[in-house]
Amino acid sequence: MSSGTSSGAGARPTADGRLAGFSAVVWVSGLLLVALIAWFFADEGGFDVAGLGEGVDDDYRLSPWTSDTPIPAEDLGGGLYEGRDGAMISLTGVDVGEPIILTPEPESYFGGVWVTGTGGRIVTAGDGHEPPDFHSLGDGRVAILVEQPDVELWINGPNDGTWRGRVSFGGLDAVTDVVSGFESDAFLYDGGESTARLSARGDGDVMISVATVHGTQRVLSAVSPLDQSIAWQDSPRVLFDVQSWGDAGWRIGFPTDAASPGPSPTGDASPVPSPTDDAPAPEATP
User: Fold this and answer.
1) Residue 52: exposed, middle, or buried by beta-carbon count in 10 A (0-12, 13-18, 19+)?
2) Collapsed DSSP state (helix, strand, coil) of residue 23
3) Which of 25, 112, 119, 181 lies at 20 to 30 Å from 251 by C-alpha?
């Protein structure tokens, strides 16, 4: 009995050792297989290692302009740039009278753009102690207003891939008195006021955001019909992003128009629409 017990105890470590050895072989083989697949797709151009955001930690993504080693976006030429989340586009000699437009390429998107001066220096105050933060318009573009000609654009892009977008300047219509429509629209206002009168009718929703040199601010999100004043932060030039859904028709009258329901400077004799008015909304004044 004694010898049989001793023999059984000696056989157990041998079996455990074989099991452990087998597990190690499977584990190593799995690692080799994963490495082989990654190498194959990288060699074929179908696996972008840099696009996974390697080397971009959460602290950098939240405030990339504070980093001692900022990540520059790649200049592909013709105003086209590519980069990871938090990558920076450097622009010099910008005309401060025109908005900077960042348009995403197909299958790319931008959560927003922070704007600083050179070296990540905050020139214009944004929200709190951060630089101005500009959000995407309804069509996916980001429109940016600046006060200085040399700027750095810090892109808030996807966490797990690369973005690609094109930089251009201007291209938005400017208004001074009244604008209206049934669809979403974006335009500039440089009349110097910081209030306007908004009216809407029909069945649908209306959302309005404004961008100044201090960043983007949402000023209204409501269901039509409505008739009320809206206000925004003082700025010499303001960019309006109006988004409407359903059958909502909207009209924004700036002080020269909102003070009276009479004719506008362009000869538009239509009154400001009221929630009870069943007539079609007036067309936009050029």
Assistant:
1) middle
2) helix
3) 112
Contacts of 156 (CB under 8 A, 6+ apart): 61, 85, 86, 110, 111, 112, 113, 114
The span from the CA of 82 to the CA of 78, in Å, is: 12
How far is it, in rounded angstroms, from Cα 88 to Cα 147? 18
Give the domain-ending residue among 169, 199, 218. 169
Whether residue 280 is contained in a domain is answered as: no
Q: Is residue 254 part of a domain?
A: yes
Residue 272 inside a domain? The answer is no
Same domain, 75 and 158: yes
Q: What residue has token string 């932060």? A: 233
Q: Which residues pair with 189 in a beta bridge?
A: 175, 238
Residues 6 or more apart whose Cβ sits within 8 Å of residue 174: 187, 188, 189, 190
Last residue of one domain, picked from the residues 134, 169, 204: 169
Host domain of residue 102: 52-169
Q: Which residue shows structure tokens 């992003």?
A: 241
Which 8-state DSSP code applies to residue 272?
P
**Within this chain, do residues 124 and 23 fall inside the same structural domain, yes or no?**
no
Does residue 204 contact residue 244 with C-beta atoms inside 8 Å?
Answer: yes
- The model's pLDDT over 244-269, given as tens digits with 9 standing for 90+, comes to 998 899 999 998 744 444 333 333 33
* pLDDT tens track for 169-184: 999 999 988 999 999 9
Size (the chain), residues: 286
- In this prediction the pTM is 0.69
In a domain, 274, yes or no: no
DSSP string computed for 187-198: EEE-SS-SEEEE
Q: How many domains does the chain fold into?
A: 3
